[in-house]
Amino acid sequence: MTSRAEDPPWWRNRRLLPWLVQGVAALVVAVVVAFLLSNLLINLTARGLLLSWSWLGNPAGFDISETLLPFDASLPYWRALLAGLVNTLRVVLAGLVGATVLGTLVGTASFSSNGLLKRLARIYVELIRNIPLLLQLVFWYFVVFLALPKGSAAIQLPGVVLAQSGLFLGSPELVNGVWRAPLSFTVEFGALLTGLVVYSAAFIAEVVRGGVASVARGQWEAASSLGFSSLQTLRRIVMPQALRVIVPGLNSQYISLAKNSSLAVACGYSDLYSVAETTLNQSGRAVEVVLILLGSYLVIDLLISALMNGLNGLVQLKER
Amino acid sequence: MIVRPSRLEQLRQELFSSRLNGLISIALIAFLVTAALGLAKWALFQAQWAVIRANSTLFALGRYPLEQQWRLWLLTALLALATGLSWGLLRAILRSGPPVTLWPRNDRWALAVLVLLSLWLPMALRLSLAIQMRWWGITLLLLVVRWALGRWGSAIPATARRLIPLIWPLLYLLGMVLISGGLGLVQVAPSEWGGLLLTLLMSSFAILLCFPLGILLALGRRSALPLLRWGSVLYIEFIRGAPLITLLFLGQNILGFLLPGGMAPDRVWRAAWVLTFFAAAYVAEAVRSGLAALPAGQLEAARSLGLPMPQALIHVVLPQALRVALPATVGQFISLLQDTTLLSLIGLLDLLGTARTVMANPAFLGQSAEVYLVLAVLFWCCCAALGLGSRALEERLNPHSRSSANLSPSQA
Hints:
heterodimer, A: 9 helices, 6 strands
């Protein structure tokens, strides 16, 4: 029926045009990427730094101040990076637990019947969220933790000692002016953990507050008319419903916390990023180091996401 | 009839409604009083504010050459002029309805803060009298222009009035020239910018550029064209999966390899571009939430009226979507401003980087608390002001009920 002459010209063809636009966009991207990669290849070849992974087996030649895995300078680079990764995971895990507890407390405090507590919770959130995390970290490290007393002047409680050299748990004793204990944490770890927990808790508190606010008022009133106390109402009635809103919000806050742990270098804690920076300075292997860094954080993010999605499935309303 | 309880009765109900509440209140009051007294004692008697006074120029400008600083004074004066113009005009136009005073309540607050700051700050920093007078002059300029425009601004013809917002992009370009040199001015290399100047420059640059980039990415992510969609998704998720510091690290160490020799930008500009591309991914997600909140019928209606896609997006979809996305977008701008502190970790002398170099000076050993406290106050004020501005803008753009607005958790 329709003759060729009645067809729209090609530049107004609804079916052709989208593909043309995409083709041009893809071509531009491909050309730019090819240009960048060819430069990378030329520059790396010129410096003899072509992509290789065998250097990871060379001795690292630098020490890491604090590791869970045993490490010394004679061990290869990959062991150093692994030790850094384990350090990152350690502070992230501790931070997740701490920030969740503190954030939930602050978030529920903004629903307290006590006006002062309610306002303090708001002030906490507004204060912390408007100051850069890095500034808070250096503050905790240089102003608070490094000002702790040394040696025998340390703060001593039964079974606990807090000194400039760290936190010591389980019958600490002073040997030649150095505290020793079965369980100890350095101030670098302490400062980083405190900073991350205090900062992330402010954001988690907002997520919790939003979640609790999303539960209809009638739920509170119904529970209290059934004789529930306000704490019981929160635990048995409101929280199970609020969690459906809270868990997806927590997911992104947890990922932020994991990524923010990369600022550890500001308080002298040897996390993955800090070890990677030293590795780059020693080996000159920029591309490989950056790939390792990006890959590791991507895996950590995905792990957290997977766990939180599993949790999300548990708290969502089961519909039949 | 409802009897309002007295203030005292309200206070009693809020703080001492039950025994437990009373105990909590007393503990909190004791804690607050101790903390406040301790802080006041420290700030008044123990803190040594000389470290701030001695380095105030360093904190403000970094190592910007002394003989070129007149350019920054000129820029500040121009900024004051533009602010006064826009502020006064805004009030003059708003006044066209029912008669309002020349200085409404909020403006009187702003006026008081401005005057007090310009009187107190230069004095507290013990700047020389000549410099103090410059600050007073600049403040006076701002206020006089604000007053004159507020009084007679409505007499300006509407066509001329419409041109006034254009002074801001012009001023930005002029500011760039004044800061970096060129057009007959002596060049000042980016490595000599520092302190507050660098922080503001980096964040404003990244904010201005990441916004359009983010909108494009968000449109790409919701596009029906698969290649565009997947490209945008890949980019956004890649950026959001990596910590900023690793991306800055990438910018400093690999960008040089990716471009032909000599084409790679200066270290400062590399960081600025990384910040821009980083923030664009987050802004894209904020804008996407705004696009998602818009009923599909809006685009369909616009298209069925015969508007081509770009026009439908620009005139129908984006104005509504961006209004919804405004709080989240400004939230991203605020975190971008905070993220500029990361520049100090790659060796640039932003505010925090300057603080770290000052602290490395043995003369100022053990005075980090003072410096970090001042920086914290500065950042807090900037971020809180941005947040307040966003809320005011939100209210202005949306005169309808916003009772449900504070239910959604903010994502930062």
